[in-house]
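hey can u check if this looks right to u? its 117 residues, i copy pasted from the old doc so theres a chance i mangled smth
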Amino acid sequence: TLTSEGVNFGMLWFDIEQCYGCWGYAADNVAFLQEAVSAAQANDFNFGIYTSYYEWQAVMGSSEAFSNLPLWYADYDGQQNFNDFIPFGGWTSPNIKQYAGDSSLCYLSLDLDWYPN
């Protein structure tokens, strides 16, 4: 396991986004994610879900099975706030927002995130 190999990390995020050939029907995707969540729980990991309103709908349908987990959502509106958040998947509020993608900093390409104090 990661911990037995000395790998340290603060949080594991399950990235729920569309990709060609990765996902099947919503019910199957929910079952797959539940298995991954169960494995993370069994290993005492801190974990949450990274997705967006549209990605969640496309991959997980209307599932609210994971709304008890922290949510890191993406909406590239350039704003460091949650004013744009639209409830989905049973979440009524997020924890982190990715507000810009493909930004450059010191010749690095990166995404920008906001986490309120």
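The CA atoms of residues 2 and 42 lie 13 Å apart.
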